[in-house]
Every structure is written in C-alpha cells, then in structure tokens.
Amino acid sequence: MSSLREVSCDTITETVRRLFLEANTDLGADVLSAIEKFLAREESDLGRYALDKIVENATIAREQSAPLCQDTGLAVLFVELGQDVHIVGGNFNEAVQEGVRRAYEEGFFRKSICDPLTRHNTGDNTPAVIHAEIVAGHNIKIMAMPKGGGSENMSSCMMLLPAAGLEGLKRHVVETVVQAGSKPCPPVIVGVGVGGSMEESAILAKKALLRPVGQHNTKDDRLPTVESEILEEINRCGIGPQGYGGRTTALAVHIEMMPCHIASLPVTVNIQCHVARHKEAVI
Amino acid sequence: MKEAIEIHTPLTDKVCEELNAGDLVLLSGDVLTGRDVAHKRLFDVIMHGEKLPIDLTGKIMFYAAPTPSKPGHPIGSIGPTTSSRMDQYAPKLIELGLKGMIGKGQRSSEVKEAIQRYTAIYFGAMGGVAALLSRYITKAEVMAYGDLGPESMMRLEVVNFPLVVVNDSRGRDLYEDALEKYRRE
After folding, report:
1. What is the pTM of this model?
2. Among A53, A239, B104, B108, which is least packed by CB within 10 angstroms?
3. Helix axes A165-180, A223-234, angle to 10 degrees
4. How far is the C-alpha of B104 from the C-alpha of B106, rounded, in Å?
C-alpha cells in the first residue's frame, strides 16, 4: 500500500491564485505563435491590422500585468487529483474558491459572475466551476482557464443522429462557427467534444481547449486529419479576424472523443476567443 | 490599407453620412458606456414616460464594462461586449437621438434599419485587446447606475480611439461585405 502525501489547502489556494493572475495577463506562447503563423498568410488589410493588435495587446498586458481582456472570465478549473493525496488544513473546494477570490481582487480583474435570474453580481468572481477527476499518483494537477462570456454564448450542445456520421459532425462544427460570425471575437479556437453522454461531450469540448493551440489529438489516429479538414473549411468562410474579413477565422480545431450509446451522437462545440487563456501547475 | 479618418464627438448627420463600412476611424471626444442591465433600465424609464438620466442627443454608446482601475490609471482594461444583446433596445435609443454605437458582432435588421433611417453609425471596436484600448482613454466617470459596478453607465474621454465602421447610414454592412469578398467555395 502506498503512503499518502499531504497537501495543504493553503498551497492549493496559492497555486490557484497564481494561475489566474498569470492567465489573465500573460498570453501563452502557443496562441502568439499561432497568430504569427496566420498573420503571415492573411490576405485582408483589416485582418492583418486586427492580428497585429492582438500581438501588441499581449505585449502591453504582460509588461503592465494588465488584463488582456476586460472580460477576465468565469474561472473554470480542471483538476486531476492523485488518489494518494490527502488534503489537509481545510476544504478543497473552498481552497480553490479562495484562490480565485484573491486573484480577481489582487489583479484588479472584473468580477463577472452573477445570479442567473436577478443578475446580482456575487462580488468576488466566485463560484468557480471545478471539474475534478481522480487519477493515479500523489500529485494534484490544476489547469486554470478564465473563460469569456461572449465566446461561450456562441457554443452549442447537440444530440446528432448517429447516421449523421463524420460528415454530419464536420458540417455541424463548421456551421456553428459560421453562425457565430463576428460575435465571439475571431480568430477563435474551436473545442469539440464528441461522444460520451450529453454532459460529458460538453466537458470534453472544454477540456479540448486546454491543449496548446494547434496541437492535434494523437490519441485517435483519425482525429488529426479531421481537425485539419474542419479548420480548413472554417477558414474558407471569409469571416476573418474580428469579422472584418479574411482567411483567419479560426486558429485551431481541437477534438476530444469517447465512445457513446448506440442510440446517440452527442456533440458539443465550445468556442474560445483568440484570448485563449490557460495555465497549469502540478503540486 | 486606407488611411484612418479622424472624427470628433458630438456625432452629426454630416459626419455619419461621410463614413463608409470598412473605414478605419480614430475617435476623439466623449462616449458613454452601457450594457445589458443599464440598457434595460433606460428602456424601462422610456416605457414609463419618465426622464432619462442622460441626454442621448449626438451621443455614442460603447457596449463595455471595464476591469477596475489600478491606482494612478484613469481606467482598467476595456473592450467591446457582443452588441446583439442590446439589439432589442437600440432602435428606440437611436430614435431618441443616439448617433453612434461601439461594440462587436453583427446587429439585427431592426437596428440596421434604424441606423439608416436616423443617419447613425455602428462602429466595431477590436475585441480581446483591452489592455491596448485602455491607452486611448484619458478619463472615466460614472454618470448613472453606479450600483452596477463595472456595468454602470460611464462617460469616457477618448483620444484617437481606433474603430472600424461596420454599419453605415447607407445600409452597408462590413461583416456581409467581408463574407462576399473573402468566402471561398
């Protein structure tokens, strides 16, 4: 029997705080290199102008520790909790919420969370959404993702007919992105969850957005080609950066897939704006 | 790329008539901010026949809610939210004198018709570059609905704020033009 490793709630709070402070002010190298790659082949003047501004904004935000976007997001976390970890000194969920609370206060981030009906702001950007999974080992991996509302609103969850197959899946993803048009701040990253149950497809779609931008899913050898084909199709539509026209409507399509019921083909498309913020740490 | 056109507030019919979808604009002067809840409140005031807390004549409404200002800064990061959520309120505000709107994303046909009928304009501001855009703002003060925090209605002073004309007073739409020009079969 392996021995338990103790991890304190203070450490969890501090890690979550640091990840959200960094994520909201320091755009990842994965996004920036994708922008540079597409900038080199963008045909439209306004499109190149918009892509240039994304790079300029990232530099200013990093230098001044300023939020990249005024929408500093709903705090979404994916946690892989090692089964040999014993959390001490408090409650895990509350430790995470406290980390979010501190980051949004200290970072001068916008508090964007409210009651769904009264629209009354909770005042500290909590509660965060936490997806926890128990895995082997004695570490805790925390992936933090501030998720903007504008792009989230353009997402969709559909139960396709199994007969729709691969072609139906591809058509549905392209249509969702084209339908969203200029609203989600293109160029976007398209997270797609295929299979599982209704809610699992949504979690897979969000998880797909945590991958470094443009990194293919190599767990299933059919998927890299499918991801590339959907991306090409999206970038033929002409929406372009900010919807001002051009070749760069999406930077990447990331698919996560798992088996599903014989009667179902659940597909969730989760749209992420170009400010694709995600940071991770292992405790 | 075409050179940017410098314009100043208040917006007049003449200025609006000269702007075309796709023009790059540098705006100086003052703009109001307001989004979902502020619009609902303005609309309720109008529906009850009461007096608006602000005069909309010749004004520009920026659909935005910034991050809190750090000490020594006039404003935090700021950028546009998705305009379509304000579509149900915009035609009425345009009828009452609102001349310009700043946001992101396509508008409803009702909003576009009001823009044409009342010679108004819809500008796109770049989404997701809010640290950069805050540099063009020199002053911010709350005008109404302070209880809404970041969603309160503010008056911003802007200098050479970069915008793109999306819907002009002749009925042109940059987003539609863009699809026509860049779509590949």
Report:
1. 0.94
2. B108
3. 40
4. 7
Average pLDDT of the residues in A135-159: 96
Exposed e or buried b for every residue in A59-90, given b needs 16+ CB within 10 A?
ebbeeeebbbbbbbbbbbbbbbbbeebebeee
At residue A195, what is the residue type? G
On the question of pLDDT at A279 being above 80, the answer is yes
* Residue the block writes with tokens 């994303």: B105
Strands (E) located in chain B: 5-8, 24-33, 60-62, 100-103, 121-124, 137-144, 153-167
Domain housing B54: 5-182
Helix (H, G, I), strand (E, B) or coil at A267: strand
Q: What is the DSSP letter of B100?
A: E
Residues 136-175 of B with CB under 8 A from A: 149-150, 162, 164, 174-175
Residue A69 and residue B128: Cβ atoms within 8 Å? yes
Q: What is the ipTM of this complex?
A: 0.92
- Look up residue A21 and give its two tokens: 């402070």
CATH number at residue B109: 3.20.130.10
B86 close contact with A: CB closer than 8 A? no
Q: Which residues of B53-65 are buried (b: 16+ CB within 10 A; e: fewer)?
A: eeebebbbbbbbb
Average pLDDT over residues A205-212: 97
CB B60 within 8 A of CB B125: no
Q: For chain A, report the end-to-end CA distance as a whole number of angstroms.
A: 22
Contact A133, A145 (CB under 8 A): no
Give me the number of domains chain B comprises: 1
pLDDT range class, residue B149, cuts 50, 70, 90: confident
Give residue A207's pLDDT.
97
Chain A: nearest CA to B18, how far in angstroms?
Answer: 20
B48 is catalytic: no
Of B1, B104, B130, the CB nearest to A49: B1
Inform me whether the C-beta atom of residue A239 falls under 8 Å from chain B C-beta atoms.
yes
What gap in Å lies between CA B152 and CA B144, rounded to an integer?
A: 6
Which of B8, B39, B48, B73 does the annotation list as catalytic? B39
Judge whether residue A71 has pLDDT over 80. Answer: yes
List, in sequence order, every residue forming a beta bridge with B142; answer none if it has no partner. B154
Band (pLDDT 50/70/90 cuts) for residue A1 is low
